[in-house]
């Protein structure tokens, strides 16, 4: 069996170039202890090889390895799905729908829908709360408007981020940078016993400290970028990654699709990233097109 940490583009094509090899790998990941009926949990299963299906001998239910996943009823070959997943999770600055279209040979609409379904599945709904030293900062996503100065934010979307020092990140689109919004984001994504929260001097962050957690701020307006261990340089590096991907890959981006960056960053040292991404796709709900394009 191919070891996930050895996955590269060549080995991916060599090992997962057929429908059969992709289905076999999905079966291993979805049912590591043997095929299980999704209706009654029985493992007394008969294979229907000619139809790529199984039949439960207990309840007579017929199903496939893609049933109940985002692969269900797909008309796209599974090897193209595998290739798209690999390109999305392994491209440090991301990959645009146009590039995905050219690489795997599909229409732009298919590539766009495919990439956003994968990104939605990568959303880490089970992520643990951040703890220790946590840096928090916000940024504005959106292009320039002709006739407006660089400070114009009327067309921009606010993204707030938190990063555990040396650990994971959490990103979220928010409605503004007011006290209620920023404090709510911090409370929802950090543990109660977080050691310290470091921010810039934006007034809305004031009051976030409690008996377990101290709060300190660096004064960027006074050109203070660090005061000992107090700084927000780590989360600002994340903003650099995000904005480089917008310029270099996407050119335009809807800020609500931050899940890909978050997954890739939080798995930056994970040798099994491709495997774990596939696992998420196998348990994710299918994202309808109408919901994807909605607000």
Structural write-up:
The chain has 295 residues and is α+β, with helices and mostly antiparallel strands. It has a domain at 133-257: Nucleotidyltransferase, domain 5, CATH 3.30.420. The protein has helices at residues 9-15, 19-30, 78-90, 97-104, 108-121, 179-189, 233-250, 259-266, 273-283, 289-293, and strands at residues 45-48, 53-56, 62-63, 133-141, 157-164, 169-174, 196-200, 214-218, 226-227, 230-231. The chain has a 5-stranded mixed beta sheet, with helices on both faces. A 3-stranded antiparallel beta sheet has the order 1-2-3, with no helix packed on it. The longest helix has 18 residues, at 233-250. The chain is elongated, with a radius of gyration of 22 Å. The chain starts with 8 loop residues before the first helix and ends with a helix.
Identify the notable features of this structure and list them briefly.
295 residues; Nucleotidyltransferase, domain 5; five-stranded mixed beta sheet; three-stranded antiparallel beta sheet; 10 helices; 10 strands
Brief summary:
The chain is of the alpha+beta class and 295 residues long. The protein is 36% helix and 16% strand. The chain has a 5-stranded mixed sheet with strand order 6-5-4-7-8, sandwiched between helices.
Beginning-to-end CA distance, first to last residue: 43 Å
How is the biggest beta sheet arranged? 5 strands, mixed
Secondary-structure element series: HHEEEHHHEEEHEEEEHHHH
Percent of residues in β-strands: 15-25%
Number of helices: 10
Instruction: Give a count of the beta strands, DSSP E runs of length 2 or more.
Output: 10
Q: The CATH topology of the domain at 133-257 is what?
A: Nucleotidyltransferase, domain 5
The strand order across the widest sheet is 6-5-4-7-8
Main structural class: alpha+beta
In CATH, what is the class of the domain at 133-257?
A: Alpha Beta
Q: On the 0-100 scale, what is the average pLDDT? A: 86
- Which percent bin holds the helix content? 25-40%
What is the 3D form? elongated
């Amino acid at each position: 069996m191919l070891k996930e940490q050895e996955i590269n583009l060549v080995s991916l094509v060599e090992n997962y170039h057929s429908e059969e090899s992709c289905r076999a790998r999905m079966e291993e990941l979805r049912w590591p202890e043997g095929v299980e009926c999704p209706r009654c949990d029985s493992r007394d299963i008969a294979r229907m090889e000619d139809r790529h299906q199984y039949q439960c001998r207990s309840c007579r239910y017929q199903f496939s390895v893609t049933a109940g996943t985002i692969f269900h009823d797909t008309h796209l070959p599974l090897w193209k799905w595998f290739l798209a997943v690999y390109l999305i999770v392994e491209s440090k600055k991301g990959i645009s729908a146009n590039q995905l279209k050219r690489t795997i040979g599909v229409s732009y609409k298919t590539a766009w829908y495919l990439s956003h379904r994968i990104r939605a599945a990568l959303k880490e709904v089970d992520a643990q709360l951040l703890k220790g030293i946590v840096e928090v900062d916000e940024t504005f996503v959106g292009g320039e408007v002709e006739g407006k100065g660089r400070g114009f934010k009327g067309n921009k979307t606010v993204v707030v981020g938190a990063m555990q020092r040396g650990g994971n990140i959490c990103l979220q689109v928010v409605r503004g940078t007011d006290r209620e919004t920023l404090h709510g984001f911090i409370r929802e994504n950090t543990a109660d016993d977080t050691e310290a929260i470091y921010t810039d001097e934006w007034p809305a962050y004031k009051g976030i400290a409690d008996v377990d957690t101290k709060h300190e701020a660096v004064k960027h307006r006074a050109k203070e970028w660090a005061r000992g261990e107090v700084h927000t340089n780590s989360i600002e590096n994340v903003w650099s990654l995000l904005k480089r991907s917008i310029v270099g890959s996407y050119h335009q981006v809807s800020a609500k699709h931050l899940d890909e960056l978050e997954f890739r960053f939080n798995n930056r040292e994970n040798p099994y990233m491709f495997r774990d991404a596939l696992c998420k796709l196998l348990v994710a709900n299918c994202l309808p097109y109408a919901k994807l394009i909605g607000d």
